[in-house]
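Private note to self, pasted from the team thread so I don't lose it. Backbone tokens:
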């Protein structure tokens, strides 16, 4: 396992400048790689699409959506019944059913949004991730004092989400962090 220092920059140009600076600090081609990190949810690692069933910040959303649907449905039913009684149009049952349906939909939407919050990285797991932002990931194989050099260069070039990881590293024509998983919670430095 290799010690890997990695960070994300916004543009390909910023990634190239950071790689040049890392080489100037003594890192070789076999110690450096860069790749584009897709936006959260777009890594297609989950069988039905996306990256996971839900992320760390949405684990309560299903329950709050169900509660909102129940409250909205009852409220919509009451309003639909009241409208039907007030208009005396003979469409009472349809108005009540429509009111219940619209109320349940609006209630479930409001409840689901209420149950969605910012995920906490310290509670994240691969199954319930708090995913990294999109951008160009720069990964550096570094050990000992080289870790601090890599961190300093990445910070100087505007990298965010700088992390330390232990992973598999391949060398050759295109060096790579071979076991990188975008859902795995980063250990920020």
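Design output:
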């Amino acid at each position: 396992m290799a010690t890997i220092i990695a960070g994300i920059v916004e543009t390909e140009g910023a990634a190239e400048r950071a790689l040049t600076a890392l080489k100037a600090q003594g890192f070789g081609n076999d110690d450096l790689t860069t790749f584009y990190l897709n936006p959260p949810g777009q890594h297609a690692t989950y069988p039905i699409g996306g990256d996971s069933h839900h992320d760390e910040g949405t684990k309560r959303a299903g329950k709050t959506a169900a509660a909102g649907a129940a409250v909205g449905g009852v409220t919509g039913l009451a309003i639909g019944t009241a409208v039907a009684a007030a208009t005396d149009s003979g469409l009472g049952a349809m108005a009540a059913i429509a009111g219940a349906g619209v109320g349940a939909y609006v209630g479930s939407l409001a409840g689901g949004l209420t149950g969605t919050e910012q995920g906490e990285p310290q509670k994240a797991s691969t199954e319930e991730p708090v995913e990294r932002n999109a951008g160009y990931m720069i990964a550096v194989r570094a050990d000992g004092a080289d870790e601090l050099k890599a961190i300093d260069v990445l910070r100087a070039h505007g990298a965010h989400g700088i992390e330390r990881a232990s992973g598999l590293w391949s060398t050759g024509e295109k060096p790579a962090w071979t076991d990188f998983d975008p859902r795995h919670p980063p250990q920020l430095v």
